[in-house]
Amino acid sequence: MANVTADRDTLAKGVATILDDRSVATGFQPFAGAMVGVDANGRAVRPGAGSTAIAMLGRVEVAEVAATANDQYVVRSRTGIFKYDNHPGDTVTNASLGADCWADDDQTVANAATGSRTLAGRVFEIDADGSVWVSINFPHA
Predict the structure, then answer these.
(1) Which end of the chain is more exposed for a tag (fewer CB within 10 A), N or C?
(2) How far apart are CA 44 and CA 38, in angstroms?
(3) 57 phi, psi to nearest 5 deg
(4) What is the pTM of this model?
């Protein structure tokens, strides 16, 4: 699958409760609607980006360039239940309802924790179109 390259309209269910604003790790350009994680330094990063040590924050709401010398981004994220693409080669199914699913990139979830996938959240529902509604809470419980 591929990472988000522009803002996307990621649907949500219900009301999310936590908004988080934080600086973004160098080299990461966040886009609205994409999943976003946090690294060990407390910086926002792309999930599935080579480290299973990333904790999922939620969905990017707004990404803005901060007024700094290197034009660093600041990202606002939200926890909640969001609709993301289902990995075609490692499909999340109804058998996974309530179980963990894994971010393969910042817009696709998969069934298994392989490679550098980040724990995305819990499977809430499989949509009729095959996409996955994922409950993302930070910290993940």
Answers:
(1) C
(2) 5
(3) -90, -45
(4) 0.85
109's CB contacts (< 8 A; 6+ apart) are 84, 85, 86, 87, 92, 101, 102, 103, 120, 132, 134
What does DSSP assign to residue 24?
A: B
Q: Going by DSSP bridges, is the β-strand pair 55-65/44-45 parallel, antiparallel, or unpaired?
A: unpaired
Question: To 10 degrees, the CA torsion angle through 62, 45, 29, 19?
Answer: 0
pLDDT digits (tens, 9 = 90+) for 67-88: 555 557 788 899 999 999 999 9
Q: Determine what percent of the chain falls in helix, strand and coil, rounding each to the nearest 5.
A: 0, 40, 55
14-60 residue pLDDT tens: 766 677 888 888 888 889 999 999 988 888 899 975 666 789 999 99
Residue 127 confidence class, pLDDT cut points 50, 70, 90: very high
Are 88 and 140 in contact by the 8 Å Cβ rule? The answer is no
Q: How far is CA 32 from CA 35, 115, 121, in A?
A: 9, 25, 18
Strand partners, 21: 76
